[in-house]
Amino acid sequence: MRKIAPSILSANFLRLGEEIKAAEAAGADLLHIDVMDGHFVPNITIGPAVVEAIRAITVLPLDVHLMIEKPDLLLDDFIAAGADFVTVHYEATPHLHRTVQRIKEKGVRAGVSLNPATPVWCLENILPDADLLLLMSVNPGFGGQSFIPLVIDKIRALRRRLEEKRGSALLSVDGGVKLDNCRDIASAGADILVMGSAFFGSENYAAVVKAFREITKE
Ligand code: DX5
Ligand code: ZN
Predict the structure, then answer these.
(1) Residue of 42, 50, 93, 184 with fewest CB within 10 Å of its CB?
(2) Among 12, 19, 34, 66, which is best to mutate for testing ligand 1, by the most ligand atoms less than 8 A from CB?
(3) Ligand 1 centroid to 142 CA: how many Å?
(4) Nearest ligand 1 atom, CA 140
(5) Which residue is catalytic, options 29, 37, 131, 174?
(6) Ligand 1 centroid – CA 25 distance (Å)
(7) CA of residue 38 to ligand 2 center, whole Å
């Protein structure tokens, strides 16, 4: 079963607790939390204190997507705050293998993300270690952007490579995911679809989850 991970970047921050409860009640599988530093991406969002507050009000797994430079400096803080997955960008850390090991040593699942222009073969030597592979389908920094179509081929290629190597990492896709493209994204090989504006911008979160299940069922 494909998983839907609402991205709280598009939630109403004044009512963040209620929004998260509503996403959980609607049947979301994970909660995607976008952390931005104003350097790696041209935007600033949330830090470990907010993740800790979120941890206290939901049982959903927290999928923390670090769009920050020098992620090693903050790994411990996000892990202590209660992240279940910590994903770093291939483009943001020179010692990716060490970073992934550090996350896993703390008992947390390690993810590696690629920007749209970074080829999937860059993941080749981290495939056996990563628990999650996150393909960005927009240039990271903002919600509400359009899905970049070339990423469909990247999803297919990465799924093929995972099968060849018998890799067990989950394949996640993030950016511009809507109900009208999630069939193509799922059938290309995604396990997790991150949905920000199309989820929190809708009137009825449960209806989005129901439609998602129907569209992406095998
Ligand atoms: C973009 C973030 C995404 C974003 C997705 O930098 O990583 O997670 O919230 O938002 P939508 O679904 O609106 O593209
Ligand atoms: Zn994200």
Answers:
(1) 42
(2) 34
(3) 6
(4) 6
(5) 174
(6) 21
(7) 15
The residue-averaged pLDDT of 146-172 equals 98
Instruction: State the DSSP string of 105-151.
Output: HTT-EEEEEE-TTS-GGGGTTTTTT-SEEEEESS-TT-SSPPP-TTH
- Strands of 31-36's sheet, edge to edge? 3-6, 192-195, 170-174, 132-136, 109-114, 85-89, 62-67, 31-36
pLDDT exceeds 80 at position 218:
no
Ion ligand 2: residue ranges with CB closer than 5 A: 34, 65, 174
Phi, psi of 134 (to 5 degrees): -115, 110
173-189: pLDDT as tens digits? 999 999 999 999 999 99
Q: One of 34, 37, 63, 131 is an active-site residue; which one?
A: 34
Does residue 174 carry a catalytic annotation? yes
Q: So what's the pLDDT on residue 103?
A: 98
Give yes or no for residue 79 having a pLDDT over 80.
yes
CA of 174 to the centre of ligand 1 (A): 6
Residue type, 106: K
pLDDT digits (tens, 9 = 90+) for 96-146: 999 999 999 999 999 999 999 999 999 999 999 999 999 999 999 999 999
End-to-end CA, the chain? 8
According to DSSP, the residues that pair with 36 across neighbouring strands are: 67
CA distance 184 to 186: 5
C-alpha–C-alpha distance, residues 155 and 215, integer Å: 18
